Amino acid sequence: MPLNPRITDWTGRVVWLVGASSGIGLATARQLHERGATVVVSARNAATIEAFEAGHDGSLGIALDATDRDAMARAALRIVTCFGRIDLALYCAGHYAPMRATAFDFDEMLLHDRVNYVGALCLLDAVLPVLIRQGSGHLSLVSSVAGYRGLPNSLAYGPTKAALINLAQTLYLDLHPLGIGVSVICPGFVATPLTAQNEFKMPALIRPEEAAREILTGWAAGRFEIHFPKRFTRVLKALSHLSDALYFQAIRRVTGL
Question: What is the DSSP string of 1-42?
């Protein structure tokens, strides 16, 4: 049973992707444009955003810092002014640096929080009034399987992704009765500039284009949680249901950390 209205026809839908200069966000923007959506892309990298707009007829690029509340509000107003509505807003901006407690970095912890979580709140602040006024639309947040339970090297990253999962769940409870869809996206390892930092072999590594296809499939099916690749995420889901003692033992055995 779908938990959200299925999105199968993108023709004319106005989609705003925040964090679309590379990786999953850029690949998803490209596929949405191919399917007829009116695509708005935002990120700090102005050159990439401008290049997307120039190469995709009918699209709009708005360079901004996702953690700048005022800039996000101005961008939402510009989108509504240009196109009349926002049908889907996707927050896929992210920051990742491996960290363990033995090398705790307070400033790096706060940077993760600002980009991965506070930026999502800035998006909500900008688009929730629009969606509620419309009585329709969809909010989607890119989290990670790292948000399921604690993992080594994920001291800064994992808690922010766990927060997004909880945030999406609560948003769903509040917004579903108003006709607004909510989904949370939990990828495994995707080949992006962020995961390129990892020095270990990443199991079930997929390309951003495959991740984008999985996301669009999830929206078409009306799913709340969209996780992939299943051969990896199902294992982590199973592990997350273990008792604390068994979970810690399993993770140490698998990772060697």
Answer: --SS------TT-EEEEES-SSHHHHHHHHHHHHTT-EEEEE
